[in-house]
Amino acid sequence: MKTHSFLSSRNIGLDLLRAGLILEGVLLHASRSLPGENGWYYVAQRDPSEIFTALLSMFHTFRMEVFFFLSGMFSALIILRKGQKFFSDNRLKRVFIPLVSAWLFIPPLMYFIAGQMNQTPYTFAGWLNSYTMLHHLWFLVSLSVMSLAIPPGFYQWSARQLGKMSLPALIATLVILGNACFVLKFMVKGRGELVELIPITLRFLVYYTAGYALYINREKIAHYTRSKLMNGWLVGALTLAVWAACYYVAHNHITGVAKYISVMMGSVLSAMLSYWLVFTFERIQVKENRVLTAIVDSALIIYLLHYPVVISFSWLLDVWLPDNFSVLYVLFDFAVGIALSGLCYMLVKRSRLASFMFGLKPKDKKPAVPVEARL
């Protein structure tokens, strides 16, 4: 990897990685309608397909960690190239305003959908109380805090400290601090969604800061990539081990503290993958085209809008497929969620107001052609 040119221009490989991490959340939410130890809106009485659910559980151990790592890295890139003010204005338009826009309609819509599923009466107090739920929007709250509330000096100081460490020490730091926040999450469990979001935000702040530091210290990347921890076979073996642990927990219906063994293993995997995936996808030579650009540009909007779609269709589709087709049931729900949310993205893109609300650049209007030119 030539570090002097690291992210010197748009890297479609890393953009696709970030989009893939976002869209995998749609599949995850579609799969939560299968039986398991989770309180979900609608749970179908189907074979949970332990191999499939263990695979998704394995992805869930690192998906958001790598996403925030990438977010921190790209944040440092923008700040160094265009300045702190541009970055703050950009995060306000691309993160905070979409958060507010989605929060205005997602909670009451989910209250309506839940009422239909459970056949419960609606009340005005219930509508108001729905706004206390963040649903899948929590990550934008966390990202807004990291981007707009935490002083830039914190990231600069952290980058200097992390820049003094070797890659093994960096990974160990992520694992230790991340797991400390994981423990803190259980200490505040049941105290309200906003309180519980504090340790979650702190956990992902660790990865955001590490990604920020990676770009600041990018001259060290060549040394990092030579580390034995970045061996693809080692990363693959650890990934397989985490999947096997997730499968073992699901297959044996393990409860209590023992079920978090796979989570602890996943914390090591997420730390290693945060670096390995960046180094790997940065090297991938992908030519930008309209399809790839559309995937990258639409990913966030699809994720914001998919939630009520996949939950509603998990309920509606349940009677259409045999009970033993659990994987097909999830994949069909996932496809519907992507398709309908993608259609909404196209409609949003056409409206200047909707584009502003969801952080998109509105579609440029074609300049009017003079009458003389048309004759």
TrEMBL record:
Signal peptide location in the record? none
Citing just one GO molecular function, the answer is: acyltransferase activity, transferring groups other than amino-acyl groups
UniProt KW ATP-binding keyword? no
Q: Which InterPro entries match?
A: Acyl_transf_3_dom, Glucan_succinyl_AcylTrfase
Query: What domain of life does the UniProt record list for this protein's source?
Result: Bacteria
Q: Entry's Pfam families?
A: Acyl_transf_3 (PF01757)
Q: Which residues cross the membrane?
A: 51-80, 92-114, 134-155, 167-188, 200-217, 229-250, 256-279, 291-315, 327-348
- Provide the protein name: Acyltransferase
**Organism name:** Candidatus Pantoea soli
